[in-house]
Write a structure and sequence with these properties.
With about 750 residues, the chain is an alpha+beta fold. The chain contains 24 helices and twelve strands. A four-stranded antiparallel beta sheet has the order 2-5-1-6, with helices on both faces. A four-stranded antiparallel beta sheet has the order 9-10-8-11, sandwiched between helices. Strands 3-4 form a two-stranded antiparallel sheet. α21 packs antiparallel against α22. The radius of gyration is 32 Å and the shape is elongated. The two termini are about 30 Å apart.
């Protein structure tokens, strides 16, 4: 089939597939499911799921902090809280609402327990007395009343495992009810609010990244080629590859999450580099011999850069694909679909560019922006490097030493909402609840006993455990069957604060347990004690100490419990949603090392197969490991914690940064086979591949730097650190790499073809 006819067939096929892909994108969804970030195939996850089935989820609630201008003891404020409490109860999917205006203590009357409210909204003359009473109730102050008594906290318990549609509907209804009143401060914290807010942010962020990346690519292509074809077609290539990739995600049931918002930017800047290398070489071929036909120029171009761009696409894809070794679903999905997108971008580049150039007989000169500036700059840099090799090695040696010292400072840690900036509205609400109330991080503890946890001999040790949790661990709003027992004792002994305790006499403890048994349904005891009476559940709220500090606290807690209960407690399980998110970080180093190792091995095998030179493979890996060491040192010196987002930076950066090295080595291999002069071969490589490396690196740097506009700290950090890694990689490729090649091949050991 003639090339022109074949070109039309190919173009029609690509257009047809693109239209189908674009149609499928209407069903693409956005999601931010916290549970997708749980470590998969983990025993703690299995335990949590069983624990949740036995008792209840620790994450199906919404906290609403409501502040008054001065004091909560205002008739209008308290009546508003009381009215809001009643209206929230009526909403669909609301199971219960705890309101401070409904809080009460029990006092034993002549005909049984009597409820005595802490606050009397309709009786202003009792406000002073209520205020004094509240200040003595330590379990309420800092839990549901702020210390300054200028705000209250409502807890809305909703139907477990709500779908996205139902949770959004519930949140909208709750916000509508709250907005009916003129509260001085309103803050929310909880799964349904965080999910709704994060998805809106994800949609906005993705639109920003796509727009800025698109504008950036247009700018660089215009400055590079000053030709409409060289701007429009590369843009079409990256847009088609993005469309196909997102369509595959949608067809496979994947949704866009926080990490997946990086996909457009990465495909824009990585995908465009294939087209830039192709067009740069094509323009150079025509400049060297303008009598060549379009078809011959295309053949030479494909021969010169085809293998190099194929190899760079494969190594980049391998870098991303290695993220599939992670145990976090969003990271695995991101690695898979980015790798697919990179391969599609390469395939579409070589499927579209040659036919379009041939059909429209496109010719243009070499790159406008680098004709003088870049080449002259590269010539000066080349001379400086080879005139001062000792200085180059000394500088990189010093950077390596500083980096190793910095790596020693790196700590693995995470916080629940570390993704949000301090001025973010959601972060402000979270911080306010942390400071004014009990904190927004759920605390969940399960104790397995070899007998009934509530037998009277266990009550005093349980009281010691409660004291440890509140004073040493920092748990607030702690709830367990022991709290019910202490309240029962207080209610049967006049209602005084000094009577909220577990009695020392065995007979009195037996009486309390008998009363608890009678009232177990009303008190909801089944939420804290399993049906076999072997597992005791304790829940509460804490400040977000960070995963590292929480793990240390849990180790100390486990040790304390085992010493306290001896052989009575068979298992101690700190569990819950927050605990599982923390555990992700325990896999970080392992996954990062595994991912990088996979990338190193695959890249080494590919390069060994192509270059058939151990020396070439060693030099290439050394040139690309150094930037990773440098960036790790920067992370340590900047005091950044190693968390989920930071851990994937190394794999991303290696997969992308190695591309320039491969292009440099490919050209050097070609040049060194044509001349006995190694320096001349290096200079030719500098002048040809060097300028393409500079331009593509500028595009990559600019693309990743657009991520600093992100509202999410994780995305912003990825943008900054990957950009810095790419800059360091280019610096190594244009300074250290030529020296290493010169030292390695000055005895004329030519790498095999």
């Amino acid at each position: 089939m003639p090339f022109k006819k074949l070109s039309y067939v190919v173009l029609i096929g690509v257009l047809f597939l693109t239209v189908l892909s674009a149609i499928s994108l209407k069903n693409l969804s956005f999601n931010y499911d916290f549970e997708r970030f749980f470590p998969q195939e983990d025993p703690d996850l299995d335990y949590y799921l069983k624990h949740r089935e036995t008792f209840a989820s620790d994450n199906d609630f919404l906290l609403i902090a409501l502040g008054a201008k001065q004091s909560i003891f205002s008739v209008d404020f308290l009546k508003s809280i009381d009215t809001l409490h009643k209206s929230l109860h009526k909403l669909e999917d609301v199971e219960s609402v705890f309101s401070p205006t409904q809080a009460f203590r029990l006092i034993q009357g002549p005909f049984g327990p009597v409820k005595v409210k802490y606050i009397h909204p309709n009786t202003p003359e009792r406000f002073k007395e209520d205020s004094l009473q509240l200040q003595n109730e330590k379990h309420l102050i800092g839990s549901f009343f702020s210390k300054e008594l200028d705000a209250v906290l409502l807890m809305v318990q909703h139907t477990p495992y709500l779908s996205k549609i139902r949770s959004d509907k519930l949140l909208t209804s709750i916000e509508a009810e709250v907005n009916r009143f003129s509260f001085h401060k309103v803050y929310y914290s909880g799964k349904i609010h965080g999910q709704f807010y994060f998805i809106k942010k994800i949609q906005g962020q993705m639109a920003i990244f796509m727009t800025t990346s698109l504008l950036l690519v247009i700018l660089f292509l215009f400055l590079s080629f000053r030709h409409v074809f060289a701007i429009v077609i590369p843009l079409c290539i990256v847009l088609i590859s993005l469309c196909w990739t997102l369509s595959l995600m949608q067809l496979n049931g994947e949704a866009i999450d926080v990490i997946a918002t990086l996909l457009p930017t990465i495909l824009f800047v990585v995908g465009i580099s294939d087209a830039v290398h192709f067009l740069t070489r094509y323009a150079d071929v025509l400049k060297q011999d303008n009598t060549l036909s379009i078809l011959d120029a295309l053949k030479i171009t494909i021969k010169d850069v085809g293998w190099a761009t194929l190899l760079t696409s494969l190594t980049t894809a391998m870098g991303f694909a290695s993220l599939m070794s992670a145990q976090i679903l969003p990271v695995k999905a991101f690695g898979l679909y980015t790798a697919i997108g990179v391969c599609l971008a390469f395939m579409i580049t070589y499927v579209l560019l040659p036919p379009l150039i041939y059909i429209y007989q496109i010719k243009f000169s070499t790159m406008s922006l680098n004709q003088k500036g870049i080449i002259e700059g590269l010539d000066r840099l080349f001379l400086y490097v080879f005139r001062h090799p000792k200085l180059v090695f000394l500088c990189f040696g010093g950077m390596l030493l500083l980096s190793i010292l910095g790596i020693g400072k790196i700590e693995v840690n995470n916080f629940l909402l570390e993704d949000l900036k301090e001025n973010d509205p959601l972060m402000k609400g979270y911080s306010y609840i942390e400071e004014a109330f009990c904190g927004a991080r759920p605390f969940e503890l399960a104790l397995h006993f070899n007998s009934d946890p509530l037998e009277q001999s266990n009550l005093l040790p349980l009281e010691q455990l409660h004291q440890y949790l509140t004073k040493d661990y920092g748990v607030k709003a702690l709830v367990s069957p022991l709290v019910f027992l202490k309240q029962i004792h207080r209610s049967t002994h006049g209602g005084g604060l000094n009577q909220e305790k577990i009695p020392s006499k065995v007979s009195e403890r037996e009486k309390l347990l008998a009363i608890l048994k009678k009232q177990q349904k009303r008190l909801g005891l089944s939420q804290f004690l399993d049906a076999e009476h072997n597992v005791l559940r304790l829940v509460g709220k804490t400040a977000d100490f960070g995963g590292k500090h929480t793990d240390q606290k849990d180790l100390q807690l486990t040790k304390f419990i085992k010493e306290l209960f001896k052989d009575k407690v068979t298992e101690v399980h700190p569990t819950g949603m927050a605990k599982l998110i923390d555990k992700n970080n325990t896999y970080l180093v392992q996954n990062m090392v595994l991912g990088l190792s996979i990338s190193f091995v695959l890249v080494s095998v590919l390069m060994a197969f192509l270059y058939r030179s151990f020396k070439m493979v060693f030099i290439a890996l050394l040139a690309n490991v150094l930037p990773l060491i440098f960036i790790a040192g920067c992370i340590g010196w900047m005091g950044m914690y190693l968390n989920v987002s930071i851990s994937i930076i190394f794999t991303i950066a290696f997969g992308i940064a190695v591309d320039d090295t491969i292009h440099f080595l490919a050209k050097f291999k070609s040049a060194v086979n044509k001349t006995d002069n190694i320096l001349l071969a290096l200079k030719q490589t500098y002048r040809t591949t060097g300028k393409a490396i500079v331009v593509t690196s500028l595009i990559l740097l600019g693309g990743f730097l657009t991520l600093v506009l992100a509202s999410f700290n994780s995305i912003m950090n990825i943008g900054i650190l990957v950009s810095l890694t790419l800059f360091l990689a280019v610096l190594v490729d244009l300074t250290l790499l030529p020296l290493l090649l010169y030292l390695g091949y000055r005895n004329r050991e030519t790498p095999s073809v």
